[in-house]
Amino acid sequence: MSYNPRRALLFMPADDLHKINKAATLDVDCIIMDLEDGVAPDRKNAARQTAAQALQTLSFGRTERLV
């Protein structure tokens, strides 16, 4: 088992493409796109689509991505 220490984890609501775009430019170890608490119930479907789009089109470099 290996251990990968992380300095910074950045949480953001997955329905906010502006925040996701900004996060892709930051020097953080892990970007976490929240689909639960950070997203209003009526925005859940949009959040899933936005997260999928971001993961397919944005360059996050070596940053770990979690949804």
Lay out the secondary structure.
Blueprint: E1 9-13, H1 17-23, E2 30-34, H2 44-57, E3 64-66
Parallel strand pairs: 1-2, 2-3
Summarize the structure.
This protein has 2 helices and 3 strands.
Q: DSSP strand (E) fraction?
A: 15-25%
By DSSP, the count of extended strands is 3
Task: Give the uncertain stretches in residue-range form.
Answer: none
Which structural class best describes the helix and strand composition? alpha/beta
Evaluate the radius of gyration.
12 Å
Tally of DSSP helical segments: 2
Mean pLDDT: 94
Q: What percentage of residues falls in helices of 4 or more residues?
A: 25-40%
- Described by the principal axes of the CA atoms, the overall outline is globular
Protein name: CoA ester lyase
Domain HpcH/HpaI aldolase/citrate lyase: 7-61
Pfam families: HpcH_HpaI
Organism: Candidatus Thermofonsia Clade 1 bacterium
Characterise this structure.
There is one protein chain. 31% of the residues lie in helices and 19% in strands. It has helices at 17-23, 44-57; strands at 9-13, 30-34, 64-66. It has one domain (9-66). The longest helix is centred in the C-terminal third of the chain and has 14 residues, at 44-57. The mean pLDDT is 94. The chain has 67 residues and is of the alpha/beta class. Strand 2 (30-34), helix 2 (44-57) and strand 3 (64-66) form a beta-alpha-beta unit. A three-stranded parallel beta sheet has the order 1-2-3, with helices on one face.
